[in-house]
Amino acid sequence: MKNSAAETLVLGLLDRWWNLDGEEHRLSPGDKAPAFSLADQNNQVFDSSFLEGKKTVLYFYPAAGSPGCSKEAADFQERIEDFIRLGYQVIGVSPDSVEKIKDFEDSQQLTFTLLSDPEFEAHKAYGAFGLKTLYGRTYRGVLRSTVIVNPDLTVKNAFYSVKATGHISMLLKEIS
C-alpha cells in the first residue's frame, strides 16, 4: 500500500525536522565517532569517551525482546569470545528504557553492555535512524546498523540496514 499525498507531505516535513539538511546521515570510514552519554542496563552513565583506547562494535537495534533483536543479541553473545579474542568490545544500543534493556540482558543472558537511547540521540548521530519501508509503507524509525569504532574514536566501518541474522559472521571477517 502506497503512502497518500498527505502522508508523503507529513513524511517530508518530519524529514526536514529530524534532518535539517534533508539528507540521511551516514558515517564513513575515517569519520570521527560522534559523542554521546547514555545510561547502560545498570542505569550507570556510559559516555562515548569510554570507547577511547578500545576497539568497539557498536550495534543499534530497534526493540529489546522482539524476535529479530533477540536473535541478533543471541548471535553476538554466541560469538562474544571471538570478538574479545580479536580485542573488541560489543555494545548494543536501543531506544528502550533502562528497565527493558536490563530485562533483555537477563532473559538473553547477555554479557556485554547495552545502552538506552530513548531520545534517539546516538541513533541519529550514528545514522541509525531514518526512513524505513515495511509492507509498502514508509516511516521513520531505527535502522538496524553496526558501526566499528577504532581506539582513536574514528569509524573503521559502518553498516546500515543490516539483517538481524547473518551479519555477525561478516563483522568477524571484517575485523579479523
From TrEMBL:
Residue span, Thioredoxin domain: 27-176
Record-level Gene Ontology MF annotations: thioredoxin peroxidase activity
UniProt cross-references to Pfam families, sorted A to Z: AhpC-TSA
Keywords, ordered alphabetically: Antioxidant, Disulfide bond, Oxidoreductase, Peroxidase, Redox-active center
Top-level taxon: Bacteria
Cross-referenced InterPro entries: AhpC/TSA (IPR000866), Peroxiredoxin_BCP/PrxQ (IPR050924), Thioredoxin-like_sf (IPR036249), Thioredoxin_domain (IPR013766)
Family membership noted in the UniProt record: Belongs to the peroxiredoxin family. BCP/PrxQ subfamily.
Protein name: thioredoxin-dependent peroxiredoxin
Source organism of the structure: Aquiluna borgnonia
